[in-house]
Amino acid sequence: MVRMSAEERRESVIRAATSEFARGGYHGTSTETIAKRVGVSQPYLFRLFPGKKAIFLAVAERCLRDTREVFEKASEGLRGEEALHAMAEAYSQLIADQPEKLQMQLQVYVTVAAAEAAGDHEFGEMVRKGWLEIWDTVHLPLGADIGETTTFLAYGMLINTLVGMGFPPGHRVYGGIYESGQAKPSRKDADAQDADA
């Protein structure tokens, strides 16, 4: 049996913790659950990360970075409407293929709000930094137009909310998003939308 390096083990903790936090949130997920999922003891887990907060911060940072990288890759060499549609399509594909990424994102926002209300600003500082990086990543391909950037990200947050509530792609609640050109429904989604009307 090949032994994992500490870095490989940290990576496996981040992957396992992403799944657990996405499902249970920060307060509903124990380090014992994460350790079991990884197949390590809690003391070993705490050698890799000083505590649950550090694990959550690492997972939240990864979640934001992965989202930023999806936008970077999708918009590479594109500008304006082409970039907009490529980024919208890539993000839609990400949350369709890996729903735990969206679940984790939503858990991050809830955790930041609760931490801020309790006077703990560390979560918020890290998440705001990551969100600004996402903002900057989409801003340039959209022509550095603040209105376009705001609209794109606002529609993205609306889509996050609708998907989080369980509205399937193509449902009529997405109609305004499709009409605005923020995302183009597939023929199958358009047919499903017509059936829901």
Automatic annotation (TrEMBL):
Which residue spans traverse the membrane? none
Tell me which domain of life the UniProt entry assigns to the organism this sequence originates from: Bacteria
User: Which ranges of the sequence are annotated as binding DNA?
Assistant: 30-49
The residues covered by the HTH tetR-type domain are 7-67
UniProt keyword Protein biosynthesis, yes or no:
no
For this UniProt record, give its keywords in alphabetical order, as a comma-separated list.
Answer: DNA-binding
Asked if the Swiss-Prot or TrEMBL record annotates the protein with the keyword DNA-binding, the reply is yes
Protein's recorded name: TetR/AcrR family transcriptional regulator
State the organism of origin.
Streptomyces rubrogriseus
